[in-house]
Design the sequence.
């Protein structure tokens, strides 16, 4: 197993609903470590840049409105196989109606759009997404 890093975002719906602590506790309970965190409210340019691959899709406008609607927590997770396990085992499907029992989205997501958390979908995406939000952050090495 590889010790790796990935990006988790506790999205604005989950922060607003007061689920930030529950989500962090869930992740700690799985053995993930927190390497860096920041609570931010994304502006439109930041959200559009982050989700650039979805530009042109029907839900893009709604996604950007949602992601800029309030604070979100950016979390750099570290641990054995954490990119794979967070994304594929702990997080759950995009649509909470299809998410497996015991996943974050099953427990905390309200809809396909407002789905509580983000997770990088590959090691390459994790590296890119962590750099997008954390590069230049002096305490992350
Ligand atoms: P993820 O990898 O499971 O987060 O899903 P995708 O990469 O397919 O989509 C990125 C994000 O766009 C999702 O997490 C949702 O917040 C949002 N999204 C995806 N599909 C829809 C949709 O049909 N409607 C809305 N409103 N948002 C969507």
Sequence:
């Amino acid at each position: 197993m590889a010790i790796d890093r990935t990006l988790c975002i506790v999205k604005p719906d989950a922060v607003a609903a007061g689920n930030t602590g529950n989500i962090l506790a869930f992740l700690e309970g799985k053995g993930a470590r927190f390497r860096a965190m920041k609570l931010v409210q994304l502006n439109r340019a930041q959200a559009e840049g982050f989700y650039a691959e979805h530009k042109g899709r029907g839900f893009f406008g709604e996604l950007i409105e949602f992601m800029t609607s309030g604070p979100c927590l950016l979390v750099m997770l570290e641990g054995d196989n954490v990119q794979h396990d967070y994304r594929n085992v702990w997080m759950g499907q995009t649509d909470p109606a299809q998410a497996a029992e015991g996943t974050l989205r099953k427990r905390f997501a309200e809809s396909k759009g407002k789905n509580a958390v983000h997770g990088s979908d590959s090691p390459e995406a994790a590296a890119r997404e962590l750099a997008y939000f954390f590069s230049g952050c002096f305490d992350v090495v």
Summary: The helical segments are 12-16, 20-29, 44-50, 60-67, 82-90, 104-108, 123-134. The mean pLDDT is 95.
